[in-house]
Amino acid sequence: MMRPKKIKKPKQAKLSRPRGRRPKPMPKVSSRLRRPGVEIGELVRQRAQAEAAIAEARKSNARLREAIDILPQGIVFLDPEGRYTLWNRKYSEIYKRSSDLFEHGARLEDTIRIGVARGDYPEAAGREEEWIAERLKKMYQPGERHEQVLADGRVVLIEERLTSDGGIVGLRVDITELKQREASFRLLFDGNPVPMILCALDGERILAVNDAAIAHYGYVRAEFERMTIRSLQAFDAELPWAAGRTSDEQAARTWKHVRADGTLIDLAIYSRRLMHGDQPAMLLALMDITERKRAEARLAFMAQHDSLTGLPNRNLLRQQMDEMLQHTRRSTDKVAVLMLGLDNFKAVNDTLGHGIGDKLLRGVAKRLRSTLRDEDALARLNSDEFTIVQGGVMRPEDAVLLARRILDAIGEPYLLEGHSVVIGASIGIAMSPGDGEDSEKLLKSADMALSRAKSEFRGTFSFFEAEMDARAQSRRKIEIDLRDAIQNEGLRPYYQPLVDLATGRITGLEALVRWPHPERGMISPGEFIPVAEETGLINPLGSLMLRRACTDAAQWPDDVRVAVNLSPLQFRTGNLLALVTDALRQSGLPARRLELEITETLLLEKSSQVLATLHALRALGVRMSMDDFGTGYSSLSYLRSFPFDKIKIDQSFVRDLDANPDAQAIVRSIVSLGMGLGVTITAEGVETEAELSCLRAEGCHEGQGFLFSRARPNAEVISLLKAQRVATAA
């Protein structure tokens, strides 16, 4: 603490007496009794009392100074004339540029003037006398607290009060850090792109808003300041900062506010308590999530609806079915599931394009909606399949009436981009509880009924029957067992000879897949090949047969070829060329001894990829054969698109050939065509000597059928070829 430089010797303190009380009269002493020694003793006693009082006053003053020195605020005491009487260390630290002027009896006005002249008070620059006058007025007529900026950038809060004797007590608080925080807050608040609102905790009145909030809500600042936060809330009664919620729960909640134009917006609100001046307040950051909520709603809709027609998809349909089935369990009503499949929809796509096909599907969906009741459910499950769930069904005839009404509505022509499109439909019907008590079982039963309607009737409806489920279960069992057989190489190639009709020699053998089932015995290819093609198992099955056939054929004589059938599905995987190359390399079989058979249905696709693969295979040296010739739509055009090495006449033209002049004419034409193109002609399904004689007479090159041999395992083939070699040598 700074002390005055000169301390004047205090005057002798006068003895004082309490006011309002008359002094007791001193007993009169006779002058005769007075003595000089008594008077001197009295004076000594009085002097000792005075010195003790002075020492006590000094101690009190020292304690007062120590007390104000430890205060965190600056304290100054001025006499009625504005002169320094006492100040503490903090006061000197605050005004360190002027502290050299502080001394007992110095006038504050003088120190202010010197400080202004030095530039200690930047606010006084250019208006020095006016600023000094304002400062002295605030000192001698104190009122509200005020702030003072010093030359080093610090800000001081000043509060002054008059004492009873006309003096002045001043309090100084360094609020520089507080002002910096306020400035930072103001910068973050005013310039923040996120709408922010400051609310009073008592009364919920809006104290301040930033520019982003004004722009976002559409209210002017004055309107905001007359509102409470509840004025903005659309439905919620509680406050955003209500107790009892964690910060995560607070952020997860969605609030709805009303903008000035009446529109509703969705918000996530983050709140933080703070002091605004001297009152508690709540700062709200308002994150507009309206677009996010709309996007979430769109995603939720898309997750449960078909994007093309807007109808529910399978997931939502099952939920709706479960609710309807739950209701029927409490009543005698039934639920009917009608699965509708459009007939020949692929032809519309192929001839008119997918754009017309999409419009047709939307048109079908619209007609179905208009045909059904509000309580019925409608969904699109696959590209050309729709499902209707009819509630409140009392008897099967109710489902029949709806099915006929739907078929009539669907069958009316559609006018699409100038095209009049007519489409038919088939319907499979399943009813609860007989055909299933849950949604999945009913959908499965209706699907099986639809498959029957499409395969046997078309254009009408079919009810589910228990035998359908048995067939489906059997088909599923075949798929499971077939998958296991392929994985464990349980399938075997059997070989049927291809015989040169001129010499009777075996020139090649066709590999035919056989499945010796451990429980069911030998399973017919007609039973499991369709399942393999439907499930995609035809690709690993075909790859397995190709490898096994090449490996077996490598053990045969060099002049005997092996023929392997290819499914059109194997060309779609894109790796057929690599599979053939690997099979030849691993087995060591020359490419010229491998013959690949394809059907005309493959070339129906007119795919550049298919033709490229065929040419690449032929470039390897592999021979290509067209199987089942004459059963397709345009066989001759295919012979122009690709140079085949062999044409195989379908067995339907060979059967009873000797008794059928028309078949003879067809065979004669095919043989003539083959000779003209320089390709080998092979007849399939030769079973009688009469058929063989006709084929030889027409000049057919090769024959294949039970007349020559059934399909045999490789061990028997090796013996057969060995016997042929021995016979030739003899």
From TrEMBL:
Start and end residues of each stretch annotated as Disordered: 1-33
Pfam families: EAL (PF00563), GGDEF (PF00990), PAS_7 (PF12860), PAS_9 (PF13426)
Record key words, sorted: Coiled coil
CDD domains listed in its UniProt record: EAL, GGDEF
Residue ranges the record marks as coiled coil: 40-67
Domain annotation GGDEF: ranges: 333-466
Domain (EAL): residue spans on this chain: 475-725
UniProt key word Coiled coil: yes
UniProt xrefs under PANTHER family: BIOFILM ARCHITECTURE MAINTENANCE PROTEIN MBAA, DIGUANYLATE CYCLASE DGCP
Protein name in UniProt: EAL domain-containing protein
Organism: Bradyrhizobium uaiense
Lineage, uppermost ranks: Bacteria, Pseudomonadati, Pseudomonadota, Alphaproteobacteria, Hyphomicrobiales
